[in-house]
Amino acid sequence: MRIDILSVVPELLDSVLNHSILKRAQEKGLAQLVVHNLRDYTTDKYRQVDDYPYGGGAGMVMLIEPIDKCITQLKSERSYNEVIYMSPDGILLDQPLCNRLATLEGNLIILCGHYKGVDERVREHFCTMEISVGNYVLTGGELAAAIVADAVIRLLPGVLGDETSALTDSFQDDLLAPPVYTRPADYKGWKVPDILLSGNFGKIDQWRHEQSVSRTRERRPELLKGE
């Protein structure tokens, strides 16, 4: 999978996209992340990417022309499954959406909003999906785009060392993950539950499921559909 991220401040993405799991995924050839500076698609000497909104009001609006040129060039080079705009009023990012994006077996473009957002014609004519990472506003869409890239790429086959790890994450089955423990088994009198030391994996699985349900009911009851 290739993900192209369009930004007016690409430096914000350097560290996030080039370390840990995302770095290893790229080194293995399982994913490709390319960040584009929209200022490179401007034609004026000031490399202007924004202007005042028609009708007045505070803030600046991202220009349509640099975005059009960048997306058009990318689409001339390869096909894309989705052109995603990171927006506070997009559909809320959740695990099922990440799963769906990860199974597209194609490429994605992610456009990062900035200032007061983009010219509405960008959303009308170029974007096929709009995603929000929560009911709050960020300075720009770069951090949100990094969240989407991370959440999707980690699901690609071969990215994680243990293929089953992602399947036991929170939200994969509408439940929060159960508590986990590691060595030592007794630390300052705080002990690991005996069931986890029993070697009875059937009962361990049952315990983990019960803990997941209990934790979800306590902390995120809206996830328990049908209850």
Structure class: alpha/beta
CATH superfamily of the largest domain: SPOUT methyltransferase, trefoil knot domain
Judging from the principal axes of the Cα atoms, what is the shape?
elongated
Number of domains: 2
Report the oligomer: single chain
Number of helices: 7
Report strand order across the widest sheet. 2-1-6-5-7
Q: What's the helical proportion of residues? A: 25-40%
Task: Report on this structure.
This protein is α/β, with parallel strands linked by helices and 227 residues long. It folds into two domains: 2-153, Alpha/beta knot (3-Layer(aba) Sandwich), CATH 3.40.1280; 170-223, tRNA(m1g37)methyltransferase, domain 2 (Trp Operon Repressor, Chain A, Orthogonal Bundle), CATH 1.10.1270. Helices cover 31% and strands 18% of the residues. The chain contains seven helices and nine strands, in the order E-H-H-E-E-E-H-E-H-E-H-E-H-E-E-H. The protein has a five-stranded parallel beta sheet, with helices on both faces. A two-stranded antiparallel ribbon has the order 3-4. It is elongated. The protein starts with a strand and ends in an 8-residue tail after the last helix. The mean pLDDT is 93.
Quick description:
This protein is α/β, with parallel strands linked by helices and 227 residues long. The chain has helices at residues 14-17, 20-27, 64-77, 95-102, 120-125, 142-153, 201-219, and strands at residues 2-7, 32-37, 50-51, 61-62, 82-92, 108-112, 129-132, 186-187, 190-191. The chain has 2 domains: 2-153, SPOUT methyltransferase, trefoil knot domain (Alpha/beta knot, 3-Layer(aba) Sandwich), CATH 3.40.1280.10; 170-223, Trp Operon Repressor, Chain A (Orthogonal Bundle).
